[in-house]
Every structure is written in C-alpha cells, then in structure tokens.
Amino acid sequence: MGKVTKKEILDFIEPHIQIFHKRRLENLLRLKFKTILKKKNPYLFKAKNIITAPDLVKSLLDAYLSSQEETIFGGFLEELAIFICNKVYIGKKSSAEGIDLELDKNGTKYIVTIKSGPNWGNSQQILRMKDNFRKAKRILGTNVSNGKIIAVNGCCYGKDNYPNKGDYLKLCGQTFWEFISGNENLYIEIIEPIGHKAKEKNEKFLEEYAKVINKFTIEFAKDYCDSSGSILWDKLVKFNSGNPGKLTH
Description:
This protein is α/β, with parallel strands linked by helices. Helix content is 58%, strand content 10%. It contains 10 helices and 5 strands. A 5-stranded mixed β-sheet has the order 1-2-3-4-5, with helices on both faces. Helix 4 packs antiparallel against helix 9.
C-alpha cells in the first residue's frame, strides 16, 4: 500500500479544476437560446406559474447549465479518484467497457464504475452496469490468480446504508474515498483544494452569465411575448413540441 500526500493531491487538482472552470465558461458562451428552449420541459415552467420573461429565461438556463456542469464535474472527480488510487494501490484506468478503475487490494481485484452521486441511473442503466461488470469479470478472470473479483459502483458523494447489492458493492461518499485511498478523512480533505480560486473563477462566469441572461431575455421577449408583454405559451410549446412535419409514407 502506497501513500498520497496533500501536496500531490493539490498539485493534481490545481490544473484540472481550472479545466472544469474553463469548460463551464465555454459551454455558457457558445449556448444558443433556442437550443435550451428545445431541451427543457415547457409544461413544468407553466405549472410553476412563471409569468415574466427574465424569470423563465433564468429558470431555463439554470436547469440546462446544472445538468451540463454535473457531467463536466463528474469527469473531474473520476480523474481525481483514479489518480489517488494509483498512488495508493497502483490502481489504473480500466480498458474494459463501462469500467473506470481496476485495483488490487488485500489479494482481491476490484473493478469500479465511478459515478458522481448515488441516484445516477434508472433501472435500464443499472442493468447495463451489471452487464458490464459480468463481462469484465469474465475477461479478467483468466488473469486473476485466485479468481476473486469484486465489482464496485463508487459514488463520489452521498450515502447508501445498504452497500451490498448482491452482484456488486455500492460505496458512496466517505466510504468510497476511503476505499480507494485508505484514508477515512479524504472526503473532507479534498474540499478545500477543489475550491481553490473558485471565487475568482466564478466572478468571471457570473459576469458572462448576466450578459447571456440579458441577451436571451431580449430574444425571448421578441419571439414569445405579445405586445402587452404576456408570454405566448402556445407558440413556445409549438416550438418545443410541435410536429416538425407530416409523416410521409
């Protein structure tokens, strides 16, 4: 068992968290309003009784950005977990389909799929993960001396009080970070370096975010509000969900 120092973790996080902020800003700047208008549920916003253009635009944009940021940040956390595990257990990025990490620990080989949080997938996605575990076990089994391979669904945050799922273990939050590092406090220790320069980076993001809100609000009011300023919900729903054309036979 090896060891990873706080400095090594900081040195890894520093450039990689900058990539997260850079991609987050780039995603915002290249957004087109009609792109998010097509992807979000207009019925939900009507049900929430959003009646002003700025509020609707902000709600649409925030919902879209949130899902994008979760994906980008999930990739960063996966890279961090693999880096730490490599230092401690010589863990490595797996080449098996659907498997993110392989490591040997206490005479057992573990194959790990890393997700951001515990509520990451529907029943079909979980079945696909279990199928990937079965395939990886079959392929790797010939190269494991004792034939013992344990599948793990690792989640970077959250809790699961019943980790044994039969076909695999589900390790969340503190349990997951301790599993890949041997350090029960790692889940707390990484929070400070992850936030390094976050205020500075977020100020730039918020400056551009405000411009996008203003620009999209003007565009929305022009296309989806009447002369009195009321939202034209029928027109909005038609754009979002209307039949693009009659089917041809």
